[in-house]
Amino acid sequence: MPIEFFAKVSVFCFLASYVVALVLDAARLLKRWPVARWIGLVFGLAGFAAQTGYLLIRGRQENLPPLLSSPHDWLLVLAWIVVLLYLFLTTVDRELAVGLFLLPVVLLFVGASYLVSKQPNPLIAGNRGLVMLHASLLAVGITGVVVGVMLSVMYVVQHRRLKRHHASQPGVLLPSLSRLARWNWWAVVVSVPVLTLGLGSGVALGLTSQEAGAVLSFTDPVVIGHGVVWMAMMSLFVWLLTTRRSTGRQVAALTLWAGGFLLAILIGLQVLSLTTFHSGAKTSAVPRPLGSGLHQFTFGPLPDGRGTALRGTTAGGPT
Amino acid sequence: MNLQVVYCNHQSANLSIRERLAFAGDQLEAAYRELAGRFRSAEFVVLSTCNRVEVYSAQESPDAAPTRKQIAEFVSDFHRVPLEEFSDELLAETGPDAVRHLFRVASSLDSMVLGEPQIVNQVKEAYRIAQEHNACGPLTHAMFQGAIRVSARVRSDTRLAEGRVSIASVAVSDFGRGIFDRFDDKRVLILGAGEMAEETLRYLCEEGVRQVTVVNRSLENAEKLAAQFASVGARPRSWDALDEELARADMIVSTTGASEPVVDVNRFREARRRSGEKPVFILDLGAPRDFAPAIADLDDNVFLYDIDALEETCDQNRKARHREIEKAQLIVDEEAERFMQDVYHMATGPIVKRLREQWHDVSRDELERLRSKLAHLSPADLETVERSMERIVNKLLHPPLEALRHEAKSGTPHGLIDALKRLFHLRD
């Protein structure tokens, strides 16, 4: 199929597909309807194909891999990875109700992509390798956090069912508490170091940019926000490794809080940056380097003084 | 003729009521003595399991039959539970409905878990105990033997007994598997050594359990049960080791017949203090309950299920097998109808016998008179005449007997029986 076939695909196309897939998954809660699962899977696959085509077109337009392009593309790449996970798990286990937990996160990412910039990052030209490493590590780390949050929600739902003596819904089964707790532990233990490396590469990127004339401001609210999030995740990480008598429910609750906080900050700062820092970036020809919110701490105040985004960068503006 | 069952079960009363009304094994002798004292000519069978408390009664004469109220008063007095506390939960069926109810119960159609095999054994055991106490009579014999036969037919003619057919299997597959991934590395504690414990243990072994401890008040019974499962390393322990085993266990299945909880909150709190907050799955199949309900709230990792907690899961199991239920229900209805016809027909037996005897007596008298008057007849001629007279009597008897049989299909034909008595001067 030629890639031009996807030229007219819009974000709304795959967003709508995912909404339908989620509704069909939710319908299985009300009534056992095996065909709903298959129809949902078809919608999920259709959305995934459309999203893949859309990202390829975007990559061709910007002449950059989507991961390195704008915040818009970066969020869509995150959503794409989560959809891939959803399709894989749904295909492998027909009873697992994974769509109910993963698709809302996909909708959150895709919905947020509407609100953030589509401008590519001008710094990539000079630091492509480091930026790629930074963006990749953050994408993997955040996917790990998403998985951890999903497992935590599953744990809470399963725990509640078992405590309240509710029968399991045929066709909408959840893994056992012991398996969820184990997977959750691993999701946090793997994703936090990856996130840390992602942040470290972001600092390195900032310092490199500083050498090139940019100013790194640690008082930037974006920097502070992500620093707090990272500290929360790191605290959870340390607690998990050092506490011997933690219960699955405690792990799930803390993961839910820390992971939920991370996602809220990630999306929130991306969206807010559109009207504060990023709007400045667009007009002052000082765009943000990457789609990730977490990399934004590498920027100082804008030249017009309206924010604390990248300062002194003279790299090219939006294409 | 009066057949009646007064009962409460898992559908009409919750466990907190049922456990107060249950007749423990050692209470049955006193119960039958009390029933015999109150209702001298009635037949009784008391069926008491974790899911039901049922008192079956039968009486030839409807006038002397115990009423629902009288049975309820007996239960209330016996257990010292005020009648108003359970009166609404106590149901009653009479006549064909009582028979149908027993057939449904014995066929496990009325059980929480459809097709479970224990109930027919419990019915047989209740019937045996009633016989031991001389509480049975012709009607209860016929009813319970019929129920056992119907149960066997339902099991052979339907697929009701396939799949998950024990409370343990339903509970473990839905809740146990929701807590644990695997069972081969879990320590299982079985409290009690009766039939339910054996059934549960058999299922758990199929699920891969490899570390089993049986604790029972009678160590001898624990040893017997453990010996049956020696291949999976089941080991018996005395009742003194209960606290130690409570702290070690990941899964606890309790099936004792104790009349009070054997594990209270403080005892289990102490066990949790020693075990840490590891997940523990407790399946309390006792009625009365063996574990105090408040134990479920001790911490997040205690998952306690009593019989009533399995209701929703069992309902789903039931819905999934509705076609087999319909088939089984047809068998029960057919057998109940046949049983009632037999019972009604049995009621017409004495009158039919008397009518037949009376008419044959008349024909024999006439034959003797003929024989003395017609001495020239050869034995062959006399035999021909005798046969002819027999045929005449049978042909004359046929219409009234056929009418009786027809009427007996829908109940004891009291009107017709009275008419025959008056028309032909038949006496009781």
Q: Your description of this structure?
A:
The complex is a heterodimer of chains A (319) and B (428). Chain A is an all-alpha fold and 319 residues long. Chain A is built from nine helices and no strands. Chain B is an alpha/beta fold and 428 residues long. Chain B folds into three domains: 2-163, Glutamyl-tRNA reductase, N-terminal domain (Beta Polymerase, domain 2, 2-Layer Sandwich); 167-314, 3-Layer(aba) Sandwich (Rossmann fold); 342-424, no CATH class. Chain B is built from 15 helices and ten strands. In chain B, helix 4 crosses helix 6 (138-157), helix 4 packs across helix 13 and helix 13 (322-373) runs antiparallel to helix 14. The chains are: A mainly alpha (319), B alpha/beta (428).
Write the layout of secondary structure elements.
The complex is a heterodimer of chains A (319) and B (428).
Chain A: H1 11-30, H2 34-62, H3 71-92, H4 99-113, H5 124-163, H6 177-211, H7 221-242, H8 248-275, H9 277-283
Helix pairs in contact in A: 1-2, 1-4, 2-3, 3-4, 3-5, 5-6, 5-8, 6-7, 6-8, 7-8, 8-9
Chain B: E1 2-9, H1 15-21, H2 28-38, E2 43-48, E3 52-59, H3 68-79, E4 91-94, H4 95-106, H5 118-132, H6 138-157, H7 167-179, E5 187-191, H8 195-206, E6 211-215, H9 219-228, E7 235-237, H10 242-248, E8 251-254, H11 265-275, E9 280-284, E10 302-306, H12 311-319, H13 322-373, H14 379-408, H15 414-424
Parallel strand pairs in B: 5-6, 5-8, 6-7, 8-9, 9-10
Antiparallel strand pairs in B: 1-3, 1-4, 2-3
Helix pairs in contact in B: 4-6, 4-13, 5-6, 6-13, 7-8, 10-11, 13-14
